[in-house]
Specification:
Elements lengths: L20 E6 L6 E6 L1 H6 L6 E3 L6 H9 L1
Antiparallel strand pairs: 1-2, 1-3
Length: about 70
């Protein structure tokens, strides 16, 4: 579980979704995913490694149907 900002020098605590940025790293060997969170300030300032990507929220199938029908 994500508990604090991934920036080692930041003491920002994760309290709820909607602030900062969730990131994911997937192991090319095992497929295991590791989650990271950057607080709002660090998300704009901290350079993340190339193998760490923004976590995209999954869209529900109902949302896909609405867009397809439009």
């Amino acid at each position: 579980m994500v508990a604090k900002c991934a920036n080692p020098v930041c003491d920002g605590r994760f309290t709820y979704f909607g602030t900062g940025e969730l990131l994911v790293r997937t192991s090319p060997v095992t497929g295991h995913q590791e989650l990271f969170w950057l607080c709002q300030q660090c998300a704009g300032e901290w350079q993340v490694p190339d193998d760490v990507l923004p976590l995209e929220p999954e869209r529900s199938s109902a949302g896909k149907r609405k867009r397809a029908a439009a």
